[in-house]
Amino acid sequence: xxxxxxxxxxxxxxxxxxxxxxxxxxxxxxxxxxxxxxxxxxxxxxxxxxxxxxxxxxxxxxxxxxxxxxxxxxxxxxxxxxxxxxxxxxxxxxxxxxxxxxxxxxxxxxxxxxxxxxxxxxxxxxxxxxxxxxxxxxxxxxxxxxxxxxxxxxxxxxxxxxxxxxxxxxxxxxxxxxxxxxxxxxxxxxxxxxxxxxxxxxxxxxxxxxxxxxxxxxxxxxxxxxxxxxxxxxxxxxxxxxxxxxxxxxxxxxxxxxxxxxxxxxxxxxxxxxxxxxxxxxxxxxxxxxxxxxxxxxxxxxxxxxxxxxxxxxxxxxxxxxxxxxxxxxxxxxxxxxxxxxxxxxxxxxxxxxxxxx
Length: 358
Fold this sequence. Notes:
Layout: H1 16-29, E1 44-47, H2 59-77, E2 82-85, E3 87-88, H3 93-105, H4 110-113, H5 115-139, E4 150-151, H6 155-170, E5 182-184, E6 189-191, E7 196-211, E8 218-223, E9 234-237, E10 251-253, E11 260-265, E12 277-280, H7 286-295, H8 321-334, E13 338-351
């Protein structure tokens, strides 16, 4: 028997705001995102890579959430107890830098407002960012179990990390030792290699004369950072370099501070760079550190965490690193130990968070 049904007007365009939130709220209220434990079924669990609370989600987060949601919904459709655990990451220094930038817009610094107030502001920022990230994930339709949302500074995750480190230490799998690191003097923190942005800059190559101690003459070294000569522990040459073979085993005197250091041979030295003689500053260069380890050279750090010169810098103590460079160059010129200066294009590491030279 034929029936006549009423006609409904179909919108010309899809209006997600009128549709998606309604269904998401329905799914959430019905508890569809919270798995029911069934010991007879194999569970499927995914932990969301926690976004940093430094701001809002970007396209990469949306892609990750989409791919994970596809897997989660498929396993849920198969009747498996399925958990997609959401959360956010404190991001440490990265979040601190964002809050400092907000303060800078108001003409303030974290030192001016004090630790307590700055910590309070950071938590306020983190909480606000968490809310934004949660809202964005929900707008994407991410079927996470929001009843179990985690933050990496929560007691549970924090304890898990500490416990893991203790276990590794007790098994002899981790230890504390002296290593070369990337250090940001502005953020006052170590940086992983992934957190260092290398920028091509036009700098200078400074040719410095190191007087020989047992005879007349000099060994000239080329460096982009003349201020670090204060931490030199040796001058290295390539063992195949005929220009310096007769000098291996002898010594030179560091200009200005008259400190005697040996001339050593190492095949890591590039004979085509500068003069082919390399100043070895183990505490301030990765290549120098490796060479120093092979030759049992001491590590002498000449800088404070804020990039001012420390007590090992002798007469330059207290100077900011670039001010120290200017003073060193002036003193070398006075003693006629600065042979020449050349323009030099090279790649220099910078902190990815604040763009300060590491």
